[in-house]
Specification:
By secondary structure, this protein is mostly helical. 85% of the residues lie in helices and 0% in strands. It has 15 helices and no strands. Helix 8 runs antiparallel to helix 13. It is globular, with a radius of gyration of 21 Å.
Length: 396
Amino acid sequence: MSAIPALSSAQLNKRIISVVIFTFFCYLSIGLPLAVLPGYVHNQLGYSTFIAGLIISLQYFATLISRPQAGRYADLLGPKKVVLMGLVLCGASGLFSILAVMFSTPLTSLILLAIGRVMLGLGESLTATGSILWGINIVGTTQSARVISWNGVATYLAMAMGAPLGVMLNAAFGIPGFAGLIVLMAVFGFWLASRRAAVVVTTGQRIPFNQVFSRIWPYGLCLGLGTIGFGVIATFITLYFASHGWRGAAFSLTLFSAGFVAMRLVFSNFISRFGGLRVSACSFAIECVGLLIIWQAHSSLVVDIGAFLTGSGFSLIFPALGVEAIRQVAPQNQGSALGLYSAFLDFGLGITGPVAGLLIGRWGIDTVYLAAAVVVAFALVVIMRLRLRAGAAVEN
């Protein structure tokens, strides 16, 4: 990688935003159908709620499976080409959604929707992974935390905007309303990305996946464990409020997001100043406290405080540990490391729902927040061991 000239903070942010905007387009495409498709599959096509949920989950499974390969392709082909491929797949998912409503038979519509969801999952892997690696290449590896942080802001901002916008467009125009927007964003994003300068692919020995995995798995494991705290709030906070007869679950989710975004914008520079392990240790501690507060809450106000702390704690975990993960490999293998590392987040979100559902059925909904706190505390223990090992390596 060529040397990156010294840039001001504003110049760095401008360069980063010029590529993480493609992540925004991708995750807005993901957010738009989320609140609409389950109802369409269940109420209009006549399938069970299980099938409706499975249609949504197909995207997550496709993302989980394809993340590592997306990173490898970014290493081999360059992040620009990977982002372009990802945007094409995102746009194709919108086309298949439009085709699904044009067919009168429920089974044909369901199959077309399923194909579109798989394409969207593949598009997410390629676009998100490629955008991060593209950003790191144009501002330098020393700014990795800044790139990952801005990418996260783009992700959660797009998801927050996507669901309500999708509902509005569906009410006005039906599924072709939001699906058409997905296609238009893909076309515009492809045009925009094609005009951006590509970065030179780093040459050198590329190590096998198993060797990359052996170097980054502790950081990915901790990311997956920390993600469970986010998962139990995003998935079960509405049921938690209902079980206590409270109102305002949506506001708790808003506070979670506010804490998340605020930490990313204000404190992401702490990662380069104090190191990823130290920042992630503090983050896990804050997240754990937030979850314990929710577990023991006796009013919605206390839950709001816990949700804000949980979002604040979870915010810097991905970039802090991501910096440490990609540091374990040479530049020509960083895409593979990033893809494998990100897959732990997908896996954590994937297992949260069914495992927490089993806990709720046996011990009640309050226990999922205690269990999540215990899991996050375990991640903190692992991080402390990694810090001790890193300190011993420096002394030797």
